[in-house]
Amino acid sequence: MSETNPKLRAELEGIPTYKPGKPAAADGPVAYKLSSNENPYPPLPGVIESVTAATGSFNRYPDMACTGLISELSDRFGVPLSHLATGTGSVGVAQQLLQATSGPGDEVIYAWRSFEAYPIITQISGATSVKVPLTPGEVHDLDAMADAITDRTRLIFVCNPNNPTGTVVRRAELERFLDRVPSDVLVVLDEAYREFIRDVEVPDGVAIYRDRPNVCVLRTFSKAYGLAGLRVGFAIAHEPVAAALRKTAVPFGVSQLAQDAAVASLRAEDELLGRVGSLVCERQRVVEALHGQGWTVPETQANFVWLRLGERTLDFAAHCEQAGVVVRPFAGEGVRVTIGETEANDIFLKATEAFRKEL
Fold first, then answer.
1. Residues 189/161, Cβ–Cβ less than 8 Å
2. What is the DSSP letter of 219?
3. Full-model pTM
4. Which residues have CB under 8 Å from 358's CB, separation 6+?
5. How far apart are CA 125 and CA 98, in angstroms?
6. 130 by DSSP, 3-state: which?
7. Which end of the chain has the lower number of beta carbons within 10 A, N or C?
């Protein structure tokens, strides 16, 4: 009998692999990981206690409806319970959105470069990616994205702030763009770094969604809230979209630990705001230092900075690693560097100064 392999979907061929930030070496000179946009602070007050309490019930399934977390989010954002859905990080919710909207023959529009999961989850769904280049200033080209809409378009991602450039779309341009999008095309405002924004002209996606049934907002507890290891994110959307997200969710996908930790984090908002404020101050210090060294840095409203280095990208990443920090390189394009502890940022700035002298 001849041997054949199981038949797999053709769409899976050639899918790019998601590349997580490289960890700091355990036995080398590298001391700090600035490659994954993680929060350098420990979990917020109350989180460890809530997680510890939940460990006694590992033999039980979590609350599949995330009742406590959904209720907390409903109060926090002033939205109906039926407009909320959870998932394994905002990227998990994004994949659910594609399952709900897009398949073979459909198109998904997003800026490029943007979040590297977009092309992966789009291809998994069987849909076709339509990548619209960023402007020379590393910002979403919303006019070009609107021009790219066809009758096959099902979903549009707007990453705000954009990962990995940190740049933002402001209120007037976003509203103008949304006015051009057909009402049957879903626009996903991916706001994973919302808490770090200080530009008053950048709209809160939740305010935008209220009057626009085709707008969905993604948020996460992985970044500002410091729960990257627990994988919990959520969407705010009108009932048809939120209901579809609940249908496409992996049953029991969000653990009870993650749910309880997220609730405790929401209840520690004063501490959260203080920590985020400190990181924003560090961001300003790092950007000013880079400018002083002669670097061109796009204005960032996230917890990272972007340096476009082209063919020198991998050399720069290796230089930083040797100096003691790991950054996130995108070969041939540039590096994204998380704002971390003061000590880590100081090492990074010494590395950038030394590298610039070699140019």
1. no
2. E
3. 0.94
4. none
5. 6
6. strand
7. N
